[in-house]
Design goal:
Radius of gyration of chain A: 25 Å
Strand content of chain A: over 45%
Order of helices and strands of chain A: HEEEEHHEEEEEEEEEEEEEEEEEEEEH
Largest sheet of chain B: 9 strands, antiparallel
Helix content of chain A: under 10%
Shape of chain B: globular
Oligomer: heterodimer
Strand order of the largest sheet of chain A: 6-7-10-11-14-15-13-12-9-8
Helix content of chain B: under 10%
Order of helices and strands of chain B: EEEEEEEEE
CATH architecture of chain B: Sandwich
Number of strands of chain A: 24
CATH topology of chain B: lipopolysaccharide transport protein A fold
Largest interface: A-B, 38 and 34 residues
Number of strands of chain B: 9
Low-confidence stretches of chain B: none
Mean pLDDT of chain B: 89
Distance between the termini of chain B: 42 Å
Distance between the termini of chain A: 40 Å
Largest sheet of chain A: 10 strands, antiparallel, barrel
CATH superfamily of the largest domain in chain A: Lipopolysaccharide (LPS) transport protein A like domain
């Protein structure tokens, strides 16, 4: 997913002309802005932004600077500092798209901020991969993306070779997400919730690591982890999810609670598919009577 | 204030009708008005007909408007009806930070709004932080 978002964001908006199409264009010289209406399309290289309306705001010049640059102004020396595109906003680069209700391009800050509504949040798509959130900030001069209250579905990362059934998606929610492509890293912070099938893990922070192809390799949860799957609960200071093996390894005073059983050890491995558990240097309390129904069911 | 010249000018006092060939005019807007943002506005056309008393007219043939701010607009025909300038043929305009081609135009004569209509294509200049 990181790779997808990064490629989208890599369309840096450098100095120079931005092509546009629209139904109408209104120039408001006093307001130092240009308004585009109806099927607006802004194009820069292979970056395309479309929407229903757009406002281009020109930078303000101080009187002194304006006098100094009079000759340049006559020749066309003013530039747009900010674009606001509204209504079914769509950002496209190659096969990747981002959508929202409003997109604001800060040319000086080199950012594109997408927002939406509760019903239609801003979203980035790359094939089957999707990322949505309350607010998505795409940096145009680097490969980083900043997401407020992200909701991520990690599909591509879960290719389960040899399995006929579709892969189980991993869904991630958090208050904040920063994608750092140079480090192939997605950093989720504040109330991170990870869901995969009936397993739910909660943690204050989590980092997702990707390979060069954009495939998820590892999830690292830190700062205290609470995992629940059915009646089973596991806790620890940290947890690492291996995307290839689909196992979650809890460390740091890990504990497993399962229908009256309480186990602790140096490390607890949870296999999310088979639901098998392995505890290293295990110690704890087992209550066989609590599992009688399971035995009868088998 | 406006001042103008023409290669030939016919003026009929009755109805204040005017016809000019290869005419031009320069408007120096009053400070603080909407059009003042453009500075002086220079206007030329192959042919200009109008009724001054009724504030109506039409300019045709290589109509061109230049402003001291750096805007230029070109078209083949413009109608004037007091508060608005209108064109129903293609208009090409460029100025500080923009260049645009439209299929028509509606502009307020006080300069507060210039609208190119019916399909516009152009460029906007951007400048990233250095």
């Amino acid at each position: 997913m990181t790779g997808a978002i990064v490629l989208l964001a890599a369309a840096a908006l450098l100095s120079g002309p931005l092509d546009f199409n629209a139904r109408d264009m209104r120039i408001e010289p006093q307001g130092r802005r240009v308004l585009l209406d109806g099927d607006v399309r802004l194009t820069r290289g292979d970056l395309h932004v479309t929407g229903e309306h757009a406002v281009a705001e020109y930078g303000k010049q101080s009187a002194q600077k304006a006098r100094a640059r009079k000759a340049e102004a006559v020749a066309g020396g003013q530039t747009v500092e900010r674009f606001t595109v509204r209504g079914n906003v769509r950002v496209q680069r190659g096969s990747r798209t981002a959508t929202g209700e409003q997109g604001v391009v800060d040319v000086k800050g080199q950012t594109l901020v997408l927002t939406g509504t509760l019903e239609t949040p801003p979203m980035v798509r790359d094939g089957a991969e999707t990322l949505s959130g309350e607010r998505i900030l795409l940096r145009l001069d680097s490969e980083d993306v900043d997401v407020i209250r992200p909701r991520v579905v990690l599909r591509r990362s879960l290719a389960e070779e040899g399995h006929a059934a579709p892969p189980t998606p991993v869904k991630v929610e958090a208050d904040h997400l920063v994608l750092l492509q140079a480090r192939r890293l997605a950093r989720f912070t504040d109330d991170v919730v990870l869901r995969r099938g009936d397993a739910v893990a909660r943690s204050p922070r989590m980092e997702a690591r990707y390979d060069a192809d954009g495939q998820l390799t590892r999830l690292e949860l830190r700062g205290g982890v609470d995992v629940r799957q059915g009646d089973r609960r596991a806790t620890g200071e940290s947890a690492d999810y291996d995307a290839q093996a689909r196992t979650l390894v809890l460390q740091g005073d890990p504990k497993l609670y399962d229908q009256g059983d309480v186990l602790t050890g140096d490390r607890i491995d949870l296999a999310l598919d088979s639901k098998e558990v392995r505890v290293e240097r295990a110690r704890g309390r087992l209550r066989p009577e609590a599992h009688k129904r399971e035995a009868a069911a088998q | 204030m406006a001042r103008g010249n023409a290669e030939r000018l016919d003026y009929r006092r009755a109805g204040a009708r005017m016809e000019a060939v290869r005419g031009g005019a320069v408007i120096d807007p009053d400070p603080g008005t909407g059009i003042a943002a453009f500075g002086s506005v220079r206007f030329i056309a192959e042919r200009v007909e109008g009724e001054i008393a009724n504030r109506r007219g039409i300019a045709s043939g290589a109509v061109r408007v230049d402003t001291s701010r750096g805007d230029t607009a070109r078209t083949e025909r413009v109608f004037y009806d007091g508060d608005f300038l209108r064109s129903d043929v293609p208009v090409a305009a460029e100025g500080p930070g923009y260049r645009v081609d439209g299929r028509g135009m509606v502009a307020r004569t006080d300069g507060t709004s210039i609208r190119l209509t019916d399909g516009v294509v152009g460029q906007l200049q951007t400048e990233a932080r250095r």
